[in-house]
Amino acid sequence: MKQNILKLLLISLVFSFTACHDFEELNTDKSNLPYVPGEVDSSVSGEGIDIDYELSETEIEELRTGLSAIPNIFANFTYEGAYNDYQITTNLTHDIYAGYFANNTPSFHESSPTYVYRDDWSKRRWEHFYDDRTAAEYAQLIKTFYFVDRDYYKNVFYITRIYYAFLLSMHTDTYGNVPTEYYVKGLLPPDLNVNYTSQSEVYNIISSYWMKQLE
User: Fold this and answer.
1) CA 61, CA 63: separation in Å to the nearest integer?
2) Angle 119-127/154-175 helices, nearest 10 degrees?
3) Would you give the distance in Å from CA 129 to the centre of its chain?
4) I need a surface site. Which of 50, 113, 151, 169 has the fewest CB within 10 A?
5) What burial class does residue 67 get, using C-beta atoms within 10 Å of its C-beta: 0-12 exposed, 13-18 middle, 19+ buried?
6) Which helix (H) or strand (E) covers residue 65, if one does?
7) pLDDT for 128-181, tens place per residue?
8) 68 secondary structure, DSSP code
């Protein structure tokens, strides 16, 4: 009889715990934000650097839900920004000086940039800039800082944009003319056939970034 009573008590405790907790919330990975930069409204211009668009209340709420992950995203954005896959994206490809000395290493001899062009290595920095730094991190950061509480996050919003300008300078120094429209605003272009911005204009954009943050 006592054993039956004990079993009933244990069962009731289990049901009481399940009733008190939201397991969907507990099983949500806070490091992966629910908000994903979507396609931009075609009516929004890709020109300029200002955030001249609005988000829906649903999108803003998704950004607010992901606030706990922002410190990690910001840390990765600044840490990996210039150094993601550094050996491949810089030392053995675009940094010809380092690549020259790689010829002394037999395993790199046939792949170093002194005599060989490795497209799969060269494109790695391009992919990191647009896929990781811009779409996955920069867009998430500036939208959160601007739309969730722009007064409270004012300083870190400007810090993020200044650092992005630094990454953009590295990007254009590597590839020359590069796509910037929409990306600098934290948006994804509405069309895959993107325009390429001349290097001189990219540096005008970078200068605008700096001047805007100093105002």
Assistant:
1) 5
2) 160
3) 8
4) 151
5) middle
6) helix 57-65
7) 999 999 999 999 999 999 999 999 999 999 999 999 999 999 999 999 999 999
8) G
